[in-house]
Predict the 3D structure of the following.
Amino acid sequence: MRVLGVDPGLTRCGVGVVEGMPGRPCTLIAYYVVYTDPGDELPARLLHLDRSLTDLVAEHRPDSVAVERVFSQHNVRTVMGTAQASGIAVLAGARAGLPVQTYTPSEVKAAVTGSGKADKAQITAMVTRLLRLPEPPRPADAADALALAICHVWRGGTRSKLAVAADRARRGGAR
């Protein structure tokens, strides 16, 4: 399974692509950070992000897209930009006809480090180790995007199987 992970941000949007199977080590395909200029108007920034993510989806042809779910922060301006970038990432995957899954930061941390309270340094260290990289991916937005992709490889398949099983059970076992 090839997954494109997105750590949404309006100024810096991390993108990571990995391949793998649940229970197996993942392989790094690529990682990027898409930058937008805070001095530019919002529509131009969102359009740049949309074009960049659409191009990366087309280039890497993932099987699915994993996006960090926006959570409430005290800084409303920050959360608004993150939410807008998240919407663009979800749209890029949906436009390509791909399944898109969102994960909370604590879900990603728990999947990659074993602790839902891990800090950025711990996430970066584990991503480096899990992908057998010679050096940590920089900046942290790229490491976070790779962590999202790894989380989806390891947990996404299980989630999909559970959803199919629950749907079958609701329909009385019919296929």
About this structure: The chain has a mean pLDDT of 91.
